[in-house]
Specification:
- This protein is α/β, with parallel strands linked by helices.
- It has 14 helices and 13 strands.
- A hairpin with a 5-residue loop joins β12 and β13.
- α3 packs antiparallel against α4 and α8 packs antiparallel against α14.
- The chain is globular and about 60 Å long.
Amino acid sequence: MSSDLCTLTAGELVDAYRRKTLSPVDVAQAVLQRIEALNPVFNAFNLVSDRVLEDAKASQARWMSGQPRGLLDGVPVSIKDIILTQGWPTLRGSKTVDPRGPWNDDAPATARLREHGAVLLGKTTTPEFGWKGVTDSPLTGITRNPWDKAKTPGGSSGGAAAALASGMGPLALGTDGGGSIRIPCGFTGLFGFKPSFGRVPVWPLSPFGTVAHVGPMTRGVADAALMLNVISAPDARDWHALPHEPRDWRMGLDQGVADLRIAFSPDLGYATVDPEVAALVRSAVQVFEDLGAKVEEKNPGFDSPAPLFVTHWFSGAAFLLKGIPKEKHKLIDPGLREVAEQGAKIGAHELLDAQIRRGALGAHMNLFHRDYDLLVTPTLSVPAFDAGKEVADKMLQERWTDWTPFTFPFNLTQQPAASIPCGLTKAGLPVGLHLVGPRYADALVLRAARAFETARPIRMPKVE
């Protein structure tokens, strides 16, 4: 029974609590048992809360008295160890961060989860400062994929994905600065949603700047919409935040896609894609046609923005390391040091030019979406590869950005984008379908993902 409790969605848990057929304490105990058994295998959590049962008992008392605190009362949620959590060290995968703190603040999303009664499980692993698309760090070692523990779960929200896919909690809070929600969800067969920039308030601003989003990682689209209801609530500390949209993101999820114009781009016009991935994605796109959408194969018509993204990302890494005492630099992931060294050579004029070109790319996509409601691509160019490596093939790829050509462009443009699983390779590894909407059309992306999920239900790996 305890194993069954670990497969339930957040929505199912809340319904069961309301009917009093399940207790938050029973669920918390089941999840803790799961973490105890599987975390040594997958290395998803680098901190597990000692208050889980206490918080679950408080939630149970609220449900028994008919006074739940909010939308997620009693639902276990993990927090990526990039996101501030009051009372817990946020080490960001780095030996350079002093665990003694002080740790006096919750980030906006963490604060909203607490206010809604969520049971915070602990902190999930990340590469150092979330700098790359796989999850290993000098501090916490290598995190592994529940579909095949020899493979990476991706990153940088890799611990969150490994936890979700192996049943160590139904919800995870992740960050996405170049694909860091969508990459691990692509590699581990989950639903990951990067909302429009500013939809979920963020504080403090990422050292990588305005490419970094916070969003939900779940085992289904409805849970992501439920979680978005909570974490999108306003917070005055975020100067970049969008005006709050007081709506239930679950409304309209099942309206289907029959009215949508969808552009399918198998390679954005420039990416090299693994043939097996390409075939699975092309087959998956047919689902939208079967559901009544008008699908046209069409590239969005921009050159690879990899140099543009690298200018933003690498200069962010240089800025980050500038704030760390020189004597601690030897403790830092060598790859991050290399990226920062390259970033330090980027001058002010080059950075300003990149910002102008970024604006032009965003405007280009605004114009593209006058003709198409959605852009659909593969999430990633390759399936999950060996854990502990930054790239799938060193002969073909130098840095993680070389195998993530579909994710980071839409951090530059700040558009809402999601990854939803669309099949398995012959080796049994998940492949993701990437859905990109016009800026601020978060509900549209969620609705299309829900339609696809209804036709192709998400399944989890068998992990015992």
